[in-house]
Amino acid sequence: VRFVNSTWVFGKGMCHVSRFAQYCSLHVSALTLTAIAVDRHQVIMHPLKPRISMTKGVIYIAVIWTMATFFSLPHAICQKLFTFKYSEDTVRSLCLPDFPEPADLFWKYLDLATFILLYILPLLIISVAYARVAKKLWLCNTIGDVTTEQYLALRRKKKKTIKMLMLVVVLFALCWFPLNCYVLLLSSKVIRTNNALYFAFHWFAMSSTCYNPFIYCWLNENFRVELKALLSMCQRPPKAQEDRPPSPVPSFKVAWTEKSNGRKAPLLANNLVPSSQPQSGKTDLSSVEPTVAMS
């Protein structure tokens, strides 16, 4: 709305909230990717150690959101709604940063700290963690007697895993680099602000979260299995057959013999015909023994 209308229409309160939500979501995304990388590193490098419990997982998520909130508060606080007369009948509002003096220096170091916390440190941790994981997977020798086919299948699986880890790191680095560089250069007053450029870089950075599920589905068999199981839950369950009480009347399995006098003679199960059955082709069910007639 701000880009389309060239003015801020949401008021003073949302000027602070919007800025906080933007930076908080960015930090949460980067920190979550970092936590996932560290967790995978622990699982593969130390497979005999127990996995994190549900309680620890909740604690880690709370820590991530707390850190993201702490890192985002300076950006939310240092915002101000400016109103100016654009023309005789047009008044516009802008939600812009308003840093304390020295404003230029404060803005520069705040964006530099954000660049380090939001991009450099997560990228460094993720790269080191996945590099060690890839090295162990590549150098890991097969234990026990395996056939050539099993060995080749294991090698292909290792290559897919390493390729998946590398793609995640490369995409994170590529998608976030333009936006972070743009913000850093803008705060250093090397370049002038450009809404279209900022919008494009912001969209490109946000799109990084959309690529990972497709990469996992392409290169991770476990992810595909879990995804299929999740999608199967959305299907309509088959209708349960109604429970019917057993019929008190015994059922009979009828077989047909060869034509006799131009008509087919019905026989009971196992082609057994009671001795009292007439030869006219009609079956007298009352004379049949239950042990023979019941199917």
From TrEMBL:
Compartment annotation: Cell membrane
Gene Ontology MF term list: neuropeptide Y receptor activity
InterPro entries found in the cross-reference section: GPCR_Rhodpsn (IPR000276), GPCR_Rhodpsn_7TM (IPR017452), NPY_rcpt (IPR000611)
Transmembrane segments: 58-77, 112-131, 164-185, 197-219
Biased composition (Polar residues): 272-295
Keywords: Cell membrane, G-protein coupled receptor, Membrane, Receptor, Transducer, Transmembrane, Transmembrane helix
Pfam families: 7tm_1
Gene Ontology process terms (BP): feeding behavior; phospholipase C-activating G protein-coupled receptor signaling pathway; response to glucocorticoid
Stretches the record annotates as Disordered: 269-295
G-protein coupled receptors family 1 profile domain sequence ranges: 1-216
Record-level GO cellular component terms: non-motile cilium; plasma membrane
Topological relation to the membrane, as annotated: Multi-pass membrane protein
Superkingdom in the source lineage: Eukaryota
Keyword 4Fe-4S: no
PROSITE patterns, alphabetized: G_PROTEIN_RECEP_F1_1, G_PROTEIN_RECEP_F1_2
Family, as annotated: Belongs to the G-protein coupled receptor 1 family.
Record's protein name: G protein-coupled receptor 83
Organism: Otolemur garnettii
